[in-house]
């Protein structure tokens, strides 16, 4: 795949396109039991926490020119970092399948199709289009992407208008705590943390592109969550595809679903390929990206993708401690180069953070799980690594000190 430099505008469109997806709208509907006011508040708090973390992850890529998985080697070592490449490839194959499943089921609802053959046909349609998107070069993608995001924006505005015209609030079924709603909102930007640096590092103006990409994603993702929440609260439709059908959006709704799924899933498959190549570079980025698209589509066709909320919490458990350690190292302790092969201390600290995240999740704190876990892991890693890195650099300078 060519490494052409991208403009700030095309990076911003790319991340707005990433935010506009049925999966984001669907996650917003889970928050409906909180009602509109509390729901919106939880969405904003969660996106601010996840957004700040995503911004710093992108900034490291913009500053160093490293891709997302290479940046992790700064904290976890040249071989230790590969563990996160494996986790990231798994999450992105998972996302590809989730996107295909959600896209296909929306198309089925909109076109009034039923049965497993219809699922396979709709999944293959979406998977096939992602495959073609992937096969095009970056230059063409930037143009098609900008066009499709503009079309999506218009259709989402229509959807927002229709929802705002909805009747009085409908009592939503199900239960969710405020903290859990924050956590679902953190998980969405967080899940892009191991991805964003792959795109900021190839920008003509990396720092500006990082700021604008994050802003575009923040606005787009909050909006999608609020569309989902509003649809469930004001119209009673838990399924946005049904709502779009009831609005008479017809074929334009099918277009929204297809375009939004393709533009977002392209990022998943491409980043999975970039991460995979940090493990083995025997195949080109494009070949691996195409293979990931096929694998994700096949999983989407035949494996029932359930437990979407648990998938999001799992992403939080893995990536919150990981990024807390990297941010502490890079920004606070100024460790900005790869020095170890496997940094066992940081890997152990990551594992402790993973366990603490799972514990806090079951405690259901009012501020969610990510914020206390980030604070704890950053404190711990500052205390431990501050001393450790100082000692290491003293040893290095002693070893290289001139002998009198
Ligand atoms: N397809 C996707 N949708 C939302 N967040 C993601 N993070 C990584 N891939 C994603």
From TrEMBL:
Q: Does the keyword Manganese apply?
A: no
Q: Does the keyword Transmembrane apply?
A: yes
**Gene3D superfamilies recorded:** Hydantoin permease (1.10.4160.10)
GO CC terms, sorted: plasma membrane
Give the membrane topology.
Multi-pass membrane protein
Q: Primary place of residence?
A: membrane
Q: Name one GO molecular function term.
A: cytosine transmembrane transporter activity
Q: Where are the transmembrane segments?
A: 12-34, 40-62, 82-104, 116-135, 147-164, 176-195, 215-237, 243-267, 288-305, 311-333, 345-361, 367-384
Q: What keywords are assigned to this protein?
A: Membrane, Transmembrane, Transmembrane helix
**Mind telling me which InterPro entries this protein's record contains?**
CodB (IPR030191), Pur-cyt_permease (IPR001248), Thia_CytX (IPR012732)
The record's listing under Pfam families reads: Transp_cyt_pur
* Localization of this protein: Membrane
Question: What family does the database annotate?
Answer: Belongs to the purine-cytosine permease (2.A.39) family.
The name under which this protein is listed is Purine-cytosine permease
């Amino acid at each position: 795949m060519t490494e052409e430099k991208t403009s700030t505008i095309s990076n911003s469109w790319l991340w707005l396109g990433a935010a506009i997806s049925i999966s984001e709208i669907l996650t917003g509907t889970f928050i409906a039991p909180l009602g509109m006011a509390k729901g919106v508040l939880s969405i904003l708090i969660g996106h601010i926490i996840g957004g700040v973390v995503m911004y710093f992850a992108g900034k490291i890529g913009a500053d160093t020119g490293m891709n997302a998985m290479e940046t992790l080697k700064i904290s976890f070592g040249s071989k230790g970092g590969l563990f996160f490449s494996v986790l990231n490839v798994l999450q992105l194959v998972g996302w590809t399948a989730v996107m295909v499943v959600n896209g296909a089921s929306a198309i089925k609802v909109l076109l009034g199709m039923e049965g497993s053959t219809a699922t396979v046909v709709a999944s293959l349609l979406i998977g096939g289009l992602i495959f073609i998107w992937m096969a095009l070069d970056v230059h063409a993608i930037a143009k098609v992407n900008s066009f499709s995001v503009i079309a999506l924006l218009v259709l989402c505005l229509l959807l927002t208008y229709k929802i705002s015209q909805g009747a009085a609030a409908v009592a939503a079924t199900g239960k969710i705590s405020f903290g859990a709603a924050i956590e679902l909102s953190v998980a969405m930007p967080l899940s892009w943390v191991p991805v964003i640096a792959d795109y900021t590092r190839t920008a003509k103006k990396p720092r500006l592109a990082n700021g604008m990409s994050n802003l575009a994603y923040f606005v787009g993702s909050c909006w999608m969550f609020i569309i989902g929440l509003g649809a469930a609260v004001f119209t009673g439709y838990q399924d946005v595809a049904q709502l779009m059908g009831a609005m008479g959006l017809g074929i334009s709704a099918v277009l929204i679903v297809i375009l939004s799924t393709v533009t977002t899933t392209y990022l998943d498959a491409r980043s999975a390929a970039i991460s995979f190549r940090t493990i083995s570079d025997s195949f080109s980025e494009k070949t691996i990206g195409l293979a990931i698209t096929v694998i994700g589509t096949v999983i989407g066709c035949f494996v029932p993708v359930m437990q979407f909320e648990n998938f999001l919490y799992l992403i939080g458990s893995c990536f919150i401690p990981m990024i807390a350690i990297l941010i502490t190292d890079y920004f606070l302790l100024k460790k900005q180069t790869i020095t170890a092969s496997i940094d066992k201390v940081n890997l152990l600290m990551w594992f402790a953070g993973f366990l603490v995240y799972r514990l806090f999740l079951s405690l259901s704190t009012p501020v969610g799980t990510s914020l206390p876990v980030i604070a704890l892991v950053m404190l711990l890693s500052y205390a431990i690594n501050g001393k450790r890195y100082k000692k290491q650099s003293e040893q290095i300078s002693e070893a290289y000190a001139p002998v009198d």
